[in-house]
């Protein structure tokens, strides 16, 4: 026979299982469709955003080069041949202004065809730092005899095609740097003059394209108008060509400029967009990473459903035990109090009999703990001066000793020892009640000076101070201030017992000398007695000097 608590729990759990199963099936289907749609939009958005950044990058170079080329071409249309050198110089000045405001440019040049002019060669400027360019010797084209298959691409291809063109990556002949360039042919009376162009550092382009990333292994690559690879993360391997071939025979055409394909054993999804310079930007991502988003979400939903089921079952069990648990807590708390642990947390606060019992028990614990704290205060606080007593001093030293013996800790501390002079004289002449005033005055003087350090009364007229932290760093200044306040107090006092003739001694912990805190305290005590001897000697000499003057 099952109890009511068991049957209630089973019925609740069964109802939750049915409801969660229906909701989970609907959620899984909806999330799958929504996840695919969102991922496709994310892929298109990443490609569009990347294309916009690259367009801005390419447009800056293309616009600057076309601007210079247009102005130069216009000036060449009516130029006498013998003004060629002047026109080149004019172009140099124009190019200098334009290139400085062009993002990403590495070199710019105006190279004259040796067949047009064997003497005027043009110019070539190379970027030296963020804002400056320096002129570099131009490439000697006569060694190639302008042979198209052999001569530099940046010169021969624009000459051959007769139009502006972006060239795929190549290595510059003189700089040994990999670049891509935009070049514009210039003509004079329909005769080829030379090439105006700008080169972009391929590493700069690679950084711009490398920023286009999606998920963990998604990346972008760029093809030119002839499907040559301009940029690919695996530019130095054959993978760049293999991926281009794989995309040419896709597994599925999802839509315009959107395909599924497999490459290197990985199923992938890719989208692409044309750039205004004839290149194409591709963004590709493994299908596993695309699907992982909604698949992970589905797994989380299933996991959450399981957690909810377990949580509700747990709540039902807890609810069934609602009455018995507070009593069990009270029993355990009583055991803890009996063992000396008063840090008990009892949260039950309902307005019923168990709640009343719990609040009463908590009040009892509070009063007991306050009584113990009061007893501890009586044990560790000096009744007359309200500073720490000798028992507290010994406890503090023991804790400090434990830290000293820990090799992982580096300690810095000092011990100050103080002794009240003339206490016996005050007691004998004015009475012990005035002696007590004398001791309290000395204690207050020490406490006002060493506000951030513990002060201990370790004997009838002896005190100690343990300096650490900021007080330790400022110990010399504090002891100077103490002497100053002591003198001011003694001068201002109307009676002997209101003065505070206190002798002090200080010792700093030295790991080479001190194996125990007591060793530091003993050196401080010796220093104090030496200071006391010196003060007495000084007072004796002053008396003798005064007497001598009186006799004279």
Spell out the blueprint of helices and strands.
Layout lengths: L3 H74 L6 H17 L4 E8 L9 E6 L5 E3 L17 H9 L3 E7 L6 E11 L2 E11 H9 L8 E5 L5 E3 L7 H10 L3 E4 L2 E6 L2 E9 L5 E7 H34 L3 H15 L14 H28 L9 H15 L9 E7 L2 H8 L1 H18 L5 E3 L4 E6 L1 H5 L1 H18 L9 E7 L8 H35 L1
Antiparallel strand pairs: 1-2, 1-6, 2-3, 4-5, 5-6, 7-8, 7-12, 9-10, 10-11, 11-12, 13-15, 13-16, 14-15
Subcellular location: Cell membrane
Main location: membrane
InterPro entries: dCache_1, Diguanylate_Cyclase, GGDEF_dom, HAMP_dom, Nucleotide_cyclase, Rev_trsase/Diguanyl_cyclase
Descriptive account of the structure:
This protein has 3 domains: 4-58 and 206-293, Beta-Lactamase (2-Layer Sandwich), CATH 3.30.450; 67-198, Beta-Lactamase (2-Layer Sandwich), CATH 3.30.450.20; 390-551, 2-Layer Sandwich (Alpha-Beta Plaits). The protein is of the alpha+beta class and 552 residues long. The protein has a 6-stranded antiparallel beta sheet, with helices on both faces. The model has no long low-confidence stretch (mean pLDDT 81). Helix 1 packs antiparallel against helix 6 and helix 7 runs parallel beside helix 8. The protein has helices spanning 4-77, 84-100, 153-161, 202-210, 239-248, 287-320, 324-338, 353-380, 390-404, 423-430, 432-449, 469-473, 475-492, 517-551, and strands at 105-112, 122-127, 133-135, 165-171, 178-188, 191-201, 219-223, 229-231, 252-255, 258-263, 266-274, 280-286, 414-420, 455-457, 462-467, 502-508.
């Amino acid at each position: 026979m099952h109890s009511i608590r068991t049957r209630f729990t089973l019925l609740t759990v069964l109802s939750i299982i049915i409801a969660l199963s229906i909701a989970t099936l609907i959620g899984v289907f909806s999330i799958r469709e929504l996840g695919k749609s969102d991922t496709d939009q994310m892929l298109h958005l990443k490609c569009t955003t990347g294309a916009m950044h690259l367009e801005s990058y390419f447009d800056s170079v293309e616009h600057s080069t076309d601007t210079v080329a247009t102005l130069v071409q216009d000036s060449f249309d009516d130029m006498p041949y013998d003004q060629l050198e002047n026109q080149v110089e004019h172009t140099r000045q124009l190019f200098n202004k334009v290139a400085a405001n062009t993002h990403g440019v590495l070199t710019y040049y105006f190279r004259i065809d040796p067949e047009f002019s064997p003497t005027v060669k043009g110019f070539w400027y190379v970027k030296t730092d963020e804002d400056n360019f320096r002129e570099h010797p131009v490439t000697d084209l006569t060694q190639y005899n302008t042979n198209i298959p052999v001569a530099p691409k940046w010169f021969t291809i624009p000459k051959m095609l007769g139009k502006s063109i972006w060239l795929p990556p190549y290595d510059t002949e003189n700089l040994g740097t990999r670049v891509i360039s935009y070049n514009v042919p210039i003509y004079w009376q329909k005769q080829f003059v030379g090439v105006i162009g700008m080169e972009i550092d391929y590493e700069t382009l690679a950084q711009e394209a490398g920023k286009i990333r999606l998920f963990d292994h998604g990346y972008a690559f760029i093809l030119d108008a002839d499907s040559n690879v301009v940029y690919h993360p695996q530019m130095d391997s054959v993978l760049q060509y293999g991926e281009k071939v794989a995309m040419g025979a896709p597994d599925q055409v999802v839509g315009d400029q959107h395909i599924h394909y497999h490459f290197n054993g990985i199923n992938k999804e890719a989208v692409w967009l044309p750039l205004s310079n004839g290149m194409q930007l591709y963004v590709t991502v493994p299908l596993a990473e695309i699907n992982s988003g909604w698949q992970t979400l589905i797994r989380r939903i299933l996991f959450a459903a399981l957690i909810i089921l377990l949580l509700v079952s747990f709540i039902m069990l807890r609810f069934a035990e609602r009455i018995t648990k507070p009593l069990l807590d009270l029993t355990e708390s009583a055991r803890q109090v009996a063992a000396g642990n008063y840090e008990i947390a009892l949260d039950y606060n309902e307005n019923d009999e168990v709640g009343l019992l719990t609040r009463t028990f908590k009040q009892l614990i509070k009063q007991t703990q306050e009584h113990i704290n009061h007893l501890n205060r009586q044990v560790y606080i000096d009744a007359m001066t309200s500073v720490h007593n000798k028992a507290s001093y010994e406890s503090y030293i023991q804790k400090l000793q434990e830290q000293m013996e820990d090799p992982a800790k580096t300690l810095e501390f000092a011990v100050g020892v103080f002794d009240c002079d003339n206490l016996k004289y005050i007691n004998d002449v004015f009475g012990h009640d005035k002696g007590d005033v004398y001791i309290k005055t000395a204690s207050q003087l020490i406490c006002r000076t060493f506000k951030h350090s513990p002060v201990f009364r370790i004997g009838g007229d002896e005190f100690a101070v343990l300096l650490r932290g900021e007080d330790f760093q400022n110990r010399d200044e504090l002891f100077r201030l103490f002497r100053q306040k002591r003198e001011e107090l003694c001068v201002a006092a109307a009676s002997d017992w209101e003065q505070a003739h206190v002798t002090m001694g200080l010792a700093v912990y030295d790991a080479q000398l001190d194996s125990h805190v007591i060793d530091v305290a003993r050196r401080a005590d010796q220093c104090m007695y030496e200071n006391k001897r010196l003060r007495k000697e000084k007072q004796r000499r002053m008396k003798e000097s005064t007497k001598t003057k009186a006799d004279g």
